[in-house]
Design goal:
By secondary structure, this protein is α+β, with helices and mostly antiparallel strands. The protein is built from two helices and three strands; from the N terminus they run H-E-H-E-E. Strands 1-2-3 form a three-stranded mixed β-sheet, sandwiched between helices. InterPro entries: DUF5647. It holds the Pfam family DUF5647.
Length: about 80
């Protein structure tokens, strides 16, 4: 993963953290000890790369994808 991709993931994580502060009800859909994989609707290659990395790992994974208009969409991926 490139430095640019890592920086983008950190930025997405910070944005998602702020979203959770403003929309705590989102956490009801994510089980305890689940790992969250970042994604961005506007950056499909990064989103797909992040998902491919976790498909090789064990655990319960949820993907948080930043939406252009409606905040974030969270779904289970593993």
């Amino acid at each position: 993963m490139s430095t640019k991709e890592i920086e983008k993931n950190f930025s997405l994580s910070a944005d998602f953290g702020q979203y959770i502060i403003n929309h705590p009800e989102t956490l009801k859909n994510i089980p305890r000890n689940a790992q969250i994989v970042m994604g961005d609707e506007k950056d499909r290659p990064l989103t797909e790369k992040n998902v491919l990395m976790v498909k090789k790992a064990k655990g319960r994974f949820y993907q948080a994808v930043r939406q252009a208009k409606n905040g974030w969409k969270v779904r289970q991926i593993g």
